[in-house]
Structure formats: C-alpha cells, structure tokens
Structure prediction request, 206 residues.
Amino acid sequence: YDVDYFCVPHHYEDSLDSILIPSGLIQDRIEQLARDIAVELGKEPFAVLCVLKGGYKFLADLLEKIKQYYRFSSENSVPFSVYFIRLQNYEDNHSTGKVKVMRVDGLSFLQNKNVLVVEDIVDTGKTMQVLLEILEKKQPKSIKVASLLVKRTSSSSGFQPDYVGFEIPDRFIVGYALDYNEYFRDLNHVCVISEHGKQKYSNHSN
Ligand code: 5GP
Ligand code: MG
Ligand code: MG
Prediction:
C-alpha cells in the first residue's frame, strides 16, 4: 500500500477524537469474513445486495477478497451478481427510527436466489428489520446479512447479522464510507468524530 493509506488525511486531522479501527485491521478482518462467506455461501451462485451509501467500501473490499480466496483455494469459484438499494435512517448523527427506502435496482431478481446483504453498520437494527421485511416478500431462496460493524447499544432491537466484522461501543463513528454530512467517506480508518469535527463539517458551515 501507499503510505497515505495508513495516514489520516490532513483535512481531517483536527476533526477526530480517536482512530477506533485502523484500515489494516479492517482489511484483515474482511479477509476472514470473505473466507467464511465463500465456504458457507459460495457453493452456489449468489446475489449481493449492497446497502448504500455506507456499504460501498465494504462491498468492494469483500468481493475482492472473496475472489482472492477462490484464487488461492482448491475450490471451484461461483459467480455473484451485484445489486444496490439505498436506505436512510440516520439524520445528522442520530437514528430517526423512520427508514427511507430509495430503489436503485428493482427487486424482482431476488426470487429464488441466495442473497447476501452487505451493510456498513447495525445500530438500533431498525434499518435491517425494514429491509428484511421488504426482501422476504420477494421470496428469495435464502438471505444472509453481513455487517462490517455492530454497535453495542441499549436501543438495539436485538437483530444480529450472520457475519459481523467488529462490535463497537455506542459512539458516533465516521470513515471507511461512513459519513457525517457526506464527509469522512474519504477516510480509510473507522474513527470517532470530535466536537470540533462536527462543527467544522456541520450542514451550516458548507
Ligand atoms: P439502525 O437502523 O440500525 O439504527 O442504523 C443503521 C444505519 O444508520 C446504518 O446503516 C448507518 O447508515 C447509520 N449509522 C448508524 N450508526 C452510525 C454511526 O455511528 N455513524 C454513521 N456515520 N452512520 C451510522
Ligand atoms: Mg447503512
Ligand atoms: Mg449516513
């Protein structure tokens, strides 16, 4: 990797409280998840449904690492198809409890397919609950959920994804495609935003 890969971009240096999960650790964990998913799910072709926008980096890295797994293992590889849906629950930096569903792809592809949902983070679990209700109506053969992060929070619905990268404390985090007002997606580490960062990148100041 380029050395920039390990650094915090200069424009965010004064906006973070801490680096919670550095990018190297994220990449290592995704490699393990890719192997688990390929072993358990990759016997038949499957459809991947990425939840935008926060899931895009996890999707890209996970699919690369699934391909690498097949390249270096003796197993036959299977093709996967890729779809997108956009869901919005968070406003500013809190869960609203109302999930907005914006279609990117139609959902008729789901029928009779093994589906892997790829999500950035599960907080209250409300977003996943709404999504799974929508998906189940389309009668897929199976549905599994992979979430890079799960927050330990007292307001959790109890929903647990099938594949989890990391459990994290109940803090508002940014980076690795998770945003604050659309900023911080261009940060490779999962970080805790600071009060100064919230002010600097608030809706009012730009
Ligand atoms: P839930 O419906 O489980 O409460 O929230 C899930 C969605 O809210 C996630 O997919 C993510 O888009 C957003 N979200 C939850 N926690 C955080 C966080 O700490 N930081 C950011 N940037 N987004 C979050
Ligand atoms: Mg999300
Ligand atoms: Mg967001």
Residues 23-41 form the longest helix (19 residues).
